[in-house]
Amino acid sequence: MSQPTFYYFNGRGKGEVVRLLLTFAGVSFKDVRVENIDDALRARLPFGQIPFFEDNEIELAQSGSIIRYVAQKYKIAGDNNVDIAHGDAIIESIWDVLTPYWQTKDNEEKFNKYKTETIPKFLTRWEELLLKNGGKQFVGKSLTSADIAVFHAIDHLNFLKVYQLETTKYPTLSALYTTVSEVPALKTYLAARATDSKF
């Protein structure tokens, strides 16, 4: 296999972090966007679902496992075990922000609580964690997978038209968002990214 292949729907959802990480790491990969999981693909999926990643070493399912594998393989997870662990916790936290959108969007009361309580709670925690590490990145002294994942969470909230980051309220987080978006490889990817994503 000449290059890694990543299978997911034509959506951001559970797949976009992987795409961003591979792009950030400078990895050329096949971005296979499927409409439906056909029998041939399903037969290769450990749990019958995507996302699914393969390279010369592994065939791997589950978004969290793929994120960790890619981040560690391409050395963008952190410089030591402590940083990697802290970064991984931050990555996991983005789903506590994004998943409730789908769980609450059809219930006005729950959706309002999600927007006014859940999202600000995690943005505040992320702001605090950034400041605790000096304000430039979440762990270590350079950008890691944790920074890319939080960028995705903020970007996705904006894409879903749920929340737009308040720069005055979260200045450190806003600065990180800008820094990540200006990484040359990511800037090129984001500018060319499909706008017809379904989710």
UniProtKB/TrEMBL annotation:
One GO-annotated biological process of the protein: glutathione metabolic process
Domain GST N-terminal: 2-78
Record PROSITE patterns: GST_CTER, GST_NTER
CDD domains, per database record: GST_C_Sigma_like (cd03192), GST_N_Sigma_like (cd03039)
Domain GST C-terminal span(s) in chain numbering: 80-199
Gene Ontology molecular function terms on file: glutathione transferase activity
Official protein name in the record: Glutathione S-transferase
Protein species of origin: Cavenderia fasciculata (Slime mold)
